[in-house]
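Lecture 7 notes: from sequence to structure.

We start with a single chain of 241 residues. Read the sequence below before looking at the structure.
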Amino acid sequence: MILPRWRWWFLAALFLAVVIAAIYLPILRRNIKQAAKLQQRTEEQARRELTQPTVINPADPKVKAKLYWASGADDGTVSAVTVELPLSNEPVLRAKQVLNTLLAGPVDTELRTLPPDAALLAFYLLPDGTAIADFSEALATSIPSGIESEQMAVDSIAKTLEANVPQVRRLKILIHGQETETLAGHLDLSQAFLVNANAVAPRAAADVSGASASASAAQQLTPADTAVKLAAIPNSASTKP
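Now the structure, written as tokens:
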């Protein structure tokens, strides 16, 4: 039986379509996966930009900051990496700057101590030197569960603050604005961690600077100025009736 010519054309076109689909289907699948990954990275970047506003100010003086990441010795220790950063002299802003850089991670991602999707939501410094660092839930949910990884995470935060923000005495970690008993099931977060026992609390520093300024002003008074100031003080004895 001889098939009509149009059926031969139809079968040829169908065969060609199958061949083209077999060639381009893997390419299309790969492109879809790449687009999904790109969208995921874009969403993660947008989320981090919302929760971690850029606080690095190029106008700030550049200093050699010490950031603590994993030492790579597989012993649960962290080690310092010196990075030149423009850092503010204001303690809270300075703390945000170094912690956001710490969260961004080292060049060698295997030395990362904090989850890549974790974010610093807020940072406060109380007058007694207690720092309150509020992190997103990813710090607790994305970190590998285990006392070693949890301890390394806290050590990297505490040591980075100790090295760069001398006003911090203790560190209290919150997760999404709430106190939590443990970080990821092991490390106790109910108490504050000692960062620097010799830290100068912000209030004490202000008091000392104020006292120094007053003493400096007093030393700059000349004898004539002193006499004028004493003459301006009313004599309590002469005011008695």
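Residues 62-203 form one domain. Keep this in mind for problem set 3.
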